[in-house]
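2024-03-11 09:14:02 INFO worker-7 job=invfold-0412 stage=load source=structure_tokens
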């Protein structure tokens, strides 16, 4: 399950997928708090840094920012020789 707080708690960054012509498709405008996202692991996706220019204090109990709950082990493409799925050949 993935929970995405809406853009009222931050102004830039967030969840995206790679679309046609390798462009970034911002998915944040299409989701709201408590939505659950389900997708194929082979769809290239990521999270852009939320409010990269924010320099205030971090309030771990506050609602500012973006929170994520994943019921699996996250492993970045930046990790060399990681175990990953591959496309099914037909």
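2024-03-11 09:14:09 INFO worker-7 stage=emit residues=90
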């Amino acid at each position: 399950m993935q929970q995405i707080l809406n853009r009222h708690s931050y102004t830039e960054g967030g969840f995206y997928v790679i679309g046609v012509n390798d462009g970034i498709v911002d998915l944040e405008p299409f989701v709201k708090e408590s939505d659950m996202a389900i997708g194929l692991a082979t769809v290239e996706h990521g999270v852009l840094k939320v409010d990269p220019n924010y320099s205030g204090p971090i309030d771990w109990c506050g609602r500012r920012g973006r929170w994520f709950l994943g019921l699996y082990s996250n492993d970045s493409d930046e990790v060399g020789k990681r175990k990953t799925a591959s496309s099914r050949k037909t």
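2024-03-11 09:14:09 INFO worker-7 stage=report msg="The radius of gyration is 15 Å."
2024-03-11 09:14:10 INFO worker-7 job finished
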